[in-house]
């Protein structure tokens, strides 16, 4: 079974979106370099960021998101982002009316059930959990193996927190990856058990 990784770009003060639910400059580093990160031609990063991010992205088999992210992105028009095979949506509601049942999206009630379904779909590949409320719930449930952050030099002051509303202490190991890219610092922590 693959590992479960909580991941996102994040402001220095710990937010994945501002107070208006917008990412602001959090993703600017994804278009500020000269090395294409994917086939779109839109995402271009520094060579240093490419060498770290591309292999990780290639490991991901399934992404777990909350219904809020799904709704904000219009379900990526039924096509998982970044070449991911499947998306598991944590929600208490059914798929939207008119949703294509053949699209590789799975609507699951509860984070434990969502992670279990994602691991089943991913096999030995990585399950990525989007940071924020759902990510924080998965961490609180003890289901996260690793936390990855792309820390961007911006201070939001308020907004959507990386760890959501987690209200208990969770210990991480010392970072085993610290890589400086252009306008981003890539960090990776293993979750201590």
Automatic annotation (TrEMBL):
Domain Bacterial bifunctional deaminase-reductase C-terminal: 112-170
GO MF annotation: an example: 5-amino-6-(5-phosphoribosylamino)uracil reductase activity
The organism's place on the tree of life at top rank: Bacteria
BP term (GO), one: riboflavin biosynthetic process
Annotated Gene3D superfamilies: Dihydrofolate Reductase, subunit A (3.40.430.10)
TM regions (residue ranges): none
InterPro entries membership: DHFR-like_dom_sf, RibDG_C
Protein name as annotated: Bacterial bifunctional deaminase-reductase C-terminal domain-containing protein
Lineage: Bacteria, Bacillati, Actinomycetota, Actinomycetes, Micromonosporales
């Amino acid at each position: 079974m693959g590992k479960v990784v909580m991941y996102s770009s994040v402001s220095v003060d710990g937010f994945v979106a501002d107070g208006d639910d917008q990412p602001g400059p959090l993703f600017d580093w994804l278009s500020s370099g000269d090395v294409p990160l994917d086939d779109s031609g839109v995402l271009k990063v520094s060579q240093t960021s490419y060498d770290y991010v591309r292999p990780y992205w290639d490991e991901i088999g399934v992404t777990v998101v909350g219904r809020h992210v799904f709704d904000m992105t219009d379900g990526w028009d039924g096509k998982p982002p970044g070449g991911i095979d499947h998306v598991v949506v944590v929600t208490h509601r059914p798929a939207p009316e008119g949703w294509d049942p053949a699209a590789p999206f799975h609507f699951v009630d509860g984070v434990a059930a969502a992670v279990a379904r994602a691991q089943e779909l991913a096999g030995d590949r990585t399950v990525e959990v989007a940071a924020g409320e759902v990510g924080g719930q998965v961490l609180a449930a003890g289901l996260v193996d690793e936390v990855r952050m792309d820390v961007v030099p911006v201070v939001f002051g308020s907004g959507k927190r990386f760890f959501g509303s987690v209200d208990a202490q969770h210990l991480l190991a010392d970072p085993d990856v610290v890589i400086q890219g252009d306008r981003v610092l890539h960090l990776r922590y293993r979750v201590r058990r």
